[in-house]
Amino acid sequence: MTHLASFFPPTTTRVESNTCAAVNKAIHEAMVQRIGRIAAGGPAAIDRRLQELNHEWDIERSLETGAASLSLTTLTLAATVDRRWAGVTAAVAAFLLLHALQGWCPPLVVFRRLGVRTAHEINVERLALRLLRDDFRVETRAPAAAVSIADSGSPTAAL
Questions:
Q1: Contact 112/59 with Cβ under 8 angstroms?
Q2: How many CA atoms lie within 13 Å of 76's alpha carbon, on the beta-carbon side?
Q3: How many CB atoms lie within 10 A of CB 105?
Q4: Do residues 15 and 108 lie in contact, with contact meaning Cβ atoms separated by under 8 Å?
Q5: Which helix (H) or strand (E) holds 158?
Q6: CA 112, CA 153: separation in Å to the nearest integer?
Q7: pTM value > 0.90
Q8: Long-range contact list for 87-95, CB < 8 A, 24+ apart?
Q9: CA-CA distance, 43 to 37, in Å (whole number)?
Q10: H and E: helices and strands count for the chain
Q11: pLDDT of the residue at 63
Q12: What is the per-residue pLDDT for 4?
């Protein structure tokens, strides 16, 4: 199984590793600038942005929605117009599988250039804003917050 692990990149970095460095840098710099602007706006601006982040579509959701929409459309066309449309449906499924395994597919390039971020990138911004809001301040040095997050079973449950 170890040899398969080297073939399949880690889930949290597979999209970034298949994205051009300049695009990754632009996405990161936009986030840093946005955090600076929001921090200057005070706690209310931070609260608003955190709510916005809860509704931001990540790259996975965007790709899945596009693939499902295109698949349903081409299946309908294959059934009603010309069966050769089924080839497009098969290609969409193959690209979606490639993305799931490797983190790359043709639409990824377009979505990333449009600034669509990974869940990890969105969570980095969320964490930075929560740090600015001082969500993690505790009166004692006990790691109660970390234990609470670990007990929840989800690293983002407390976010």
A1: yes
A2: 6
A3: 20
A4: yes
A5: none
A6: 30
A7: no
A8: 92/67, 93/67, 95/67
A9: 12
A10: 9, 0
A11: 97
A12: 66
| Residue 140: predicted pLDDT | 53
Picking from 43, 39, 96, the residue whose alpha carbon sits closest to that of residue 68 is 96
How far is the CA of 116 from the CAs of 25, 43, 74, 106, 107, in angstroms? 13, 26, 25, 14, 11
Q: What is the DSSP string of 63-128?
A: HHHHHHHHHHHHHHHHHHT-GGGHHHHHHHHHHHHHHHHHS--HHHHHHHHTTPPPHHHHHHHHHH
Note the Cα 149 to chain centre separation in Å. Answer: 21
Which pLDDT score is estimated for 137?
73
Residue ranges of the chain with per-residue pLDDT less than 70: 1-6, 138-159
Q: Is 60 exposed, middle or buried (0-12, 13-18, 19+ CB in 10 A)?
A: middle
Tokens of 105: 């597919």
CA dist., res. 135 & res. 117, Å (int): 24
